[in-house]
Amino acid sequence: MNYSNFHDDELILYRNELRRKQDWARADEIRAYLDSRFVFVFDHKEGPPTIYWATPAQFRFLKEKPHHFPDWTPRQYLEYRIKKDIAAEKAAASWQATMLKKIEDEKKLLAKRPHPDPTPNWILQKQTHKQAIQL
User: Fold this and answer.
1) What distance in Å separates the CA atoms of residue 48 and residue 20, rounded to the nearest whole number?
2) Can you say whether the dihedral through the CA atoms of 127, 133, 134, 135 is positive or negative?
């Protein structure tokens, strides 16, 4: 079937309807067509699909095929990048949680220490000197 007369949004909705009816062959055909237009639909076991529209810069990069992944399809490369981005987000969140824990631990340690005398040393020295003179 020729899908060029349809807008991407219409095709995505139609594909979702085909998946509900379990017409897997036509749904996969639409997904392949959308992939060729750099509109990537990722299905999940539960919930709505995730949709990625490639920006013009990504479109150009995916069209040129990265030299270090010459046999990959744009979909495979995008899946790889998504996994890398998720791993980087997890690492950043872990680092942030570690830093926040350290800050809280330091606050607890400071709270346990006795507070130093808030009077500056130079005031204490002058008082001592005055007391010495008065004697």
Assistant:
1) 11
2) positive
Q: What global pTM score does this model have?
A: 0.58
Is the Cβ–Cβ distance between 8 and 34 less than 8 Å? Answer: yes
Query: Among 7, 13, 63, which residue's Cα sits nearest to residue 38?
Result: 63
Start-to-end CA distance of the chain, whole Å, equals: 109
Report the C-alpha gap between 98 and 127 in whole angstroms: 46
| Residue-by-residue pLDDT tens, the chain, 135 positions | 788 889 999 999 999 999 999 999 999 999 999 988 889 998 888 888 888 887 767 766 666 665 666 777 778 888 888 888 899 999 999 999 999 999 999 888 877 876 666 655 555 555 555 555 555
